[in-house]
Amino acid sequence: MTAHDVVRARGRRPGGVDTRAAIVEAARKSFAAKGYDKTSMRGIAREAGVDPALVHHYFDGKAALFAETMAVPVNPAELIERVLEGGRERLGWRLVETFLTVWEPPERREALVALVRSAMTSEEAARMLREFLGREVFGRLAASAGAEDAQLRGALAASQMIGVVIARYVVRVPGLAEATRADLVERLGPVLQGYLVDGPVAPE
């Protein structure tokens, strides 16, 4: 039985473009009202009037659905998997490389800058973004390193990278705005490695 069959059997909204839009709108309302942590896929399905299986049919988890509602032009789950490949060694370098790569294309940067600006002026947007980054991005990276104080390490890594992208792409601080990605990776990699793992690893 497919997800669409489940929905029809229970008399709920069938699949389609309108259904996907209804799920996104329900998710947007739930994230705004409850924040990222307290929003559940089942609750979104209930709000949208669909079976939970249909929500999972369209979206690969809560992180992907959140990215859709916030117009984030990348799949965060894929990015994290890319950073985690290779284990703890040079984790910090891979994080900086991946993070900056996401921001480089102009078509992505416009949407991401708009997201950061909204978080800087709206507590609601800030809370959603803060919880999302803490749990799905930097929290996962810090936990993968096996440190007992993963939450603090993740928060430190988040503060570093958020500060960098604001200074580089939003405020455009001279020097940082013109620096090459490769240069920033080599300079910031040891710092992020120190946050996420026991200490910086000497570059190869």
Describe the structure.
With 204 residues, the chain is mainly α. 73% of the residues lie in helices and 0% in strands. The protein is globular, with a radius of gyration of 19 Å. The termini are far apart. Mean pLDDT is 82; it is low at 1-13.
Please summarize what this structure is:
This protein is mostly helical. The protein is 73% helix and 0% strand.
Low-confidence stretches: 1-13
Rg (CA only): 19 Å
Q: Which structural category fits the helices and strands?
A: mainly alpha
Number of strands: 0
Distance between the termini: 52 Å
Order of helices and strands: HHHHHHHHHHH
Silhouette: globular
Strand content: under 5%
Mean pLDDT figure:
82
SS element count, helices: 11
Major sheet, described briefly? Answer: none
* Helical percentage: over 70%
For the structure shown, list the relevant keywords.
single chain; 204 residues; mainly alpha
Map the helices and strands.
Elements: H1 3-9, H2 17-38, H3 41-48, H4 52-58, H5 62-69, H6 76-84, H7 91-103, H8 106-121, H9 123-144, H10 150-170, H11 181-196
Helix pairs in contact: 2-3, 2-5, 2-9, 3-4, 6-7, 6-9, 7-11, 8-9, 9-10
